[in-house]
Amino acid sequence: MVLTSILFYREWDFIGAEAACRRAIELDPRNTRSRQRYVDILRARERAEQALSQIDRAVQLQPAAAPLRMSRALVLYERGEYDSALAEAHAHPASFCRA
Q1: CATH classification code of 2-96
Q2: Which positions ≥6 away from 51 have C-beta within 8 Å?
Q3: Whole-structure pTM over 0.85, yes or no?
């Protein structure tokens, strides 16, 4: 994950960051942080369909992972699917709140 973060946030090497992130997911498919970062990279590269697909895959592995639910709502919002984004937020209100 460190390599992905350096490539993505510091170097702006989206291709390298994507490859590093895919490798991290390959090594540990249940790691929600890796999957979350991958979704962020896909969003930055304007690949919303793939981002939603990755979120769906990750939610199947970790149904209670709040960051994934937030990402899904964000991607839907960015695509202009406001009603769907709001429905996602209402379907999983605990995902959007911190105690």
Answers
A1: 1.25.40.10
A2: 39, 42, 43, 71, 75
A3: no
